[in-house]
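Long-time lurker. I teach an intro course on protein structure, and each term I like to show students one example going from raw sequence to a predicted 3D structure in token notation. This year I'd like something fresh instead of my usual example. Would anyone be willing to generate the tokens for the chain below so I can use it in lecture? Attribution to the forum is fine with me.
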Amino acid sequence: MRKIIAAFILIGMLSANLFAQNSTHSFTLSKNDFLLDNKPFQIISGEMHPARIPAEYWRHRIQMAKAMGCNTIAAYIFWNYHESKPGLFDFQTENHNIAQFIRIVQEEGMWLILRPGPYVCAEWEFGGLPSYLLKISDIKVRCMDSRYIEAVDRYIKELAIQVKGLQVTKGGPILMVQVENEYGSFGNDRRYMKWIQEMWKNNGIEVPFYTADGATPFMLEAGSLPDAAIGLDPGVSFPDFEQATKANPNVPSFCSELYPGWLTHWGEKWQRPDTKDLLKDVKWLMDNKKSFNFYVIHGGTNFGFWAGANAFSPTQYQPDVTSYDYDAPINEMGETTPKYFALRNLLTQYLPAGFKMSPIPEQKPVIEIPEIKMNTFASVWNNLPSPVYTPQPKPMELFGQKAGFIVYRTNLIGHKKGKLRITELHDYATIFIDGKYIGKLDRCKAENIIDLPESTTANPQLDILVEAMGRINFAEYMIDRKGITERVSLNGMTLMNWQVFNLPMEEPYINQLKYSAAVPTIPGNFFKGEFDLSGIGDTYLDLKLWEKGVVWINGHNLGRYWNIGPQRQLYCPASWFKKGKNELVIFDLHQLNAQSVTGIKKME
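-- Reply from a regular --
Happy to contribute to a lecture. Here you go:
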């Protein structure tokens, strides 16, 4: 049996020579196996996401996966990362260039599994769906709703242009394309699933398809397709694979997500799954010639506002941290871990005689940065845009805003004090009366009521600054609009006549902040620091002296921090630094006094 397994792996190792010849190949499905050029092929895949990795590091991370023993890369494509507005696509700039990522995979002698959605989950904002869909008040997603289907149609056509020439049948590395993702955990519209598959076919995709679901009968029945391979999330035992065979005995099945680590929410401890069980699962998969995909081999980072959230009840909300380290074999900074070497050593045992693993590439430079002195710079209250008027609060999507922050302002008429209720706050609010901070409300704690004290003014001004913490990316509560999504009441009286200030906090806004020399007395402030670097490298910016907010380095949004942990440092890649002068900007929801920041080599 070991010789047969070695033959499977040998095909993957010879792929570099095949690619060098720019040859076309066939990849097909038999009842039990994947067939590469009509020979059984065992997929040993490591998943990573181009959007979570600076483009400068794509090749390094791919080389790292190969050196651990993988012959394939799996990649999610995040629809909302590439289509910011209806019809406005970016497949060219920086790490949006999906075709380039796929070409690098090929140049490194590896195959690729494409996971294009339209829904992907992935702990990513709205599961990859674009937030502009939520402007439609009664939109239904992941089904045959005509408004949703029209948008998916546009996305598939655009993405197909980028990838169809990179299929194995065209001389590229793409072996398979996934149809949707874990659909059996969400719905049962098999017509929708079939429609997506046909859309890909109509737009030039000719390699096999697969679906991915949990190894349970109802999920497999609702999520699978007759002529698509079955992915199991996870599949690590004979009973798991027997469920797939019962669902469809005419196609092969594989472990489409094998979890070396796990995700972490704000306020939790870091997830650190046991490596012993992982090695046991990998050994079983290798011994039984089952194809599999490490989800993830390298997680990367939820830069900007792209981190998603989970919710498994109407009152539960669990936003994901900025880091997507995932306790993966290759850590967030691209470094090897003990888990990496344990897996590499195990997979080495299955190499054909005379073959060696690819050498591990050199690790990228890592630097420390001495204390960066931060100074108060500007107040959000002095940098509000022109307001929009609305009778009652509406979510930010209805104002065309994707993410960031939003301010709702009104004057109190009638009731002037008492219990203020925000119905459906999404997600974190700081509340002010006449410019005085009253307190905060946190959706994570199901908080929605706060006491307003008596004011000395005739018609007190109420300001509510809301932070969107990331849209839900999984299961039935995905329709997750941001801001104040219903209404605000005081002692049961609905408050009317609002001004709304949209604060997506994109780079142009940050670059044009108006400096204020005044000492801050109201929370909601920007802080700025400048520092010089003689040489650049990766680092973690240490924010443990700060409370809650967002960080920009030279205009790049590193993501959110929050003192509830577990994450108190943000990863900054070397490519976002400059030799010489650098600029660090922090927006903190609570901090009044500037604190220092340092760069450290390890996340604490």
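Some talking points for your students: Confidence is low (pLDDT under 50) at residues 1-21. The domain at 369-378+513-600 is CATH 2.60.120.260 (Jelly Rolls).
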